[in-house]
Amino acid sequence: MTRRLVFLFSLCLSSALADINQPYGKLSSTIETPHVCWAKPLREGRLKALVIAPTWGQRETVELAQRLDLAYTPLMTYSYFRVCSSGEYRQAPESLVFQDIDRKLKDSYDVIIIGKFKWDVLSQEIRYAILEKVHNGAGLIYICPQGVTEALNMVFNRDKIPNETNFICRGIPLKALPVLDRISENKLVSLSRFGKGKVAVLNYDQETIAEQDHHCLTPSQKEFQDWKVYYEYYHSLLAKLVVWATEKEPALSIKKIAPTSFQLERKQLPEAALKLELQNKGREEQIGMAFIIRDRNNRIEKEETKTVSVNPGANNFSFNFPPLGKGLHFIDILLKKDGKVIDWGSSYINVDSENQIEKIVLARDFYKNGESVRGKITLNKALPENLRLKIELWDNCQRRLAEKILEPANHEVIPFEIKINNPMSTLLKIRAAVNTADNNIVHQVEKELTVPMKQKDEFLFAISGSYPNDHITNLALGVFHNYGIDTFYYGAPNRTEKLKYNEAMNIARANLKIMPYIWRFYSKQKSGIVREPCLTAPDYLAQLKKSLKSSVRIFMLFGPVAYNLGDENFLAEAGRKPDGTMWYPDVCFSPSCQHKFRDYLKKTYGDLNSLNAEWGTSYKSWNEVKGMTFEQAKKHGNFAPWADHRTYMEEVFTGVNKLAGEIIRA
Fold first, then answer.
1. pLDDT in tens, 134-178
2. Nearest partner of 566 among 630, 612, 523, judged by Cα
3. 185 in Cβ contact with 164 (< 8 Å)
4. Where are the beta strands (DSSP E) in 365-504?
5. Pairing mode, if any, of strands 459-464 and 4-9?
6. What is the mean pLDDT of residues 317-344?
7. pLDDT score recorded for residue 445
8. pLDDT computed for residue 15 by the predictor
9. Contacts of 122 (CB under 8 A, 6+ apart)
10. Which residues contact 101 (CB under 8 A, 6 or more apart)?
11. Which among 148, 522, 587, 624 counts the fewest CB atoms within 10 Å?
């Protein structure tokens, strides 16, 4: 079967697939990702923002605008540490960048948001223009400030605003959010005033910022975790800050939102309630109130909307909890009038259960279609008669392939077997749940496995992009799949085994096939007559074999469409000497290359006399034979020794590529 492959190189989720002539400095909102509309549309009206952050992180501006009624203008820098970088392919020319900055700073904004960019890298003129706008009334939100100058430090600290973090933080479930759970409110958010403008510093207490971190507005991910539900609340906090900084705090607001307790036993839920206090500084009015509960996987478990009357002053409401399973649950309240959001807030509860699933253990982590998945489910104790254990097999296209009710009897370890029947995805899930008789979940646990799928398509559409190890990049993977891309070209040569596996899982979670790039043949040689690395050196070949086998052990679990042995591979490249003259490598004359070169010559010439006749030499034994550089051959008056050695080096290069293929197939 002939297969065809088309490659697309992805640069930025904001513009990818939206406009083939995407101009610099513009940020498309065409691509929509899953989100909660915390404040969109906002009753106070749309807010106008200038967002200063790297091009590679500006997708987060769109993410914020999906959740908040925001008209944004992006000011795109090259990285967190450089405004621009002339000559590099990833950005517009320097002149265009500064024209764009100058034009955008002439406009007016309700708020200026700086996403982790290093302040002292900006020119004094740009810094002055920003602070002048703040002094005249624009809000300023600075996320994780770097390079703080004396003037900016004065802006942050001279006119501090105490006790206003309540409006910003009281509706954010901080203690349930990674990164934010370990930071006090006073350290997380610092407020001040500069002239007529409000200033907020948002500090995630993350010292290291990678140059191409995609998270310019939310906490960085040093190692990927599934943040899809947490991500909503990071943006909820940002949206609250924007509303505060633009002085759009509503007259009717949520003053308190909290469950009876943040830690509840499941049996306590019928008596527990969510307590809600509203403060109304305006007139009496009728509003819509939405009550939503979502689980750790961002699945909505309950949604209730009702119309209520709110009087001037304090107004108290309560909501009862439905039956919920063990685990973390988030509770959202949205106040609306005529379809527009007035205010919003969230809380959380951790539900515990007397009966729990401790773990699912599979006989192995990958299977073939038609095989039965075998494993064991361990309970913390035997189930009572009113509870049952259910197991389901799902593919990643939300298709339930099989289900069984298991008979736990009086055992804590329950074996199971469930057959795989024509999945439509590489990734599958075993979902085990302890349920009540009326099918309410007491505790549910999932375990992922893979079914490597044989490639059936004649036409592949592949994309190459960043490592899928943060939330933004994983959003992009889902978008790629939705636009018809089916394969992700994944550069893995220098990744650890753990990262390779985790990132391959993320690719599979997006229902993309994988084409791993697992090695690259290149040279670091800048002088001398020994290639670096030498392609015939035993240590190098052992390293090659070990690395390829390690990669194949991981990626075989995902049924790769192909393995890639590198792009821009080369045997050698010319360089420039310190004196400015050019150096042209004659490639490798190491002991191992000389030894194999003699074997090559024996095969080529058959005997030493024939070699001497061709080369114009008088070697007495094969051990005397050595290759010649171009200069040596020139002095010798015969270029045959040099030509033979260059031909031999081509065979070495093709031979090591062939060897790599054999290692992969073994």
1. 999 999 999 999 999 999 999 999 999 987 667 899 899 999 999
2. 523
3. no
4. 372-379, 387-395, 400-406, 413-419, 427-436, 441-450, 459-464, 487-491
5. parallel
6. 96
7. 96
8. 44
9. 83, 130
10. 75, 83, 126
11. 624
Measured between alpha carbons, how far is 401 from 406 in angstroms, rounded to an integer? 16
Residues 6+ apart with CB under 8 A from 390: 403, 404, 405, 406, 432, 433, 434, 435
Backbone φ, ψ for residue 458 (5° rounding): -85, -15
Neighbours of 161 (CB within 10 A): 14
Distance CA 542, CA 147 (A): 46
Q: Which pLDDT value is given to residue 1?
A: 44
DSSP code, position 390: E
* Secondary structure of residue 336 in the 3-state scheme: strand
The answer to whether residues 424 and 400 touch, using CB atoms and an 8 Å cutoff, is no
Angstrom distance (rounded) from CA 551 to CA 553: 5
Tokens matching residue 105:
């700073």
Residue type present at position 374? R
Q: What's the CA gap between 146 and 130, in Å, rounded? A: 16
The rounded mean pLDDT for the chain is: 92
**What values do phi and psi take at 238, rounded to 5?**
-60, -45
Alpha helix segments (H runs only) across 404-483 = 471-482
Report the run of H or E that residue 614 belongs to, with start and end.
helix 608-615
CA distance 190 to 200: 6
Q: Which residue reads 């958010």 in tokens?
A: 189
SS3 category, 7: strand
In 189-326, which ranges are E strands?
Answer: 189-194, 197-202, 252-259, 263-265, 273-280, 285-295, 300-310, 313-320
Provide the token pair at 352.
């515990």
What is the pLDDT at residue 182?
93
How many residues are recorded in the chain?
666
Phi/psi of residue 653, nearest 5 degrees: -65, -45
pLDDT band, very low/low/confident/very high, at 435 (cuts 50, 70, 90): very high
With b for 16 or more beta-carbon neighbours within 10 A and e for fewer, the 545-554 pattern comes to eebbeebbeb
Of 197, 203, 221, 242, the C-alpha closest to 72 is 242
pLDDT tens, 197-234?
999 999 999 877 887 789 999 999 876 678 889 999 99
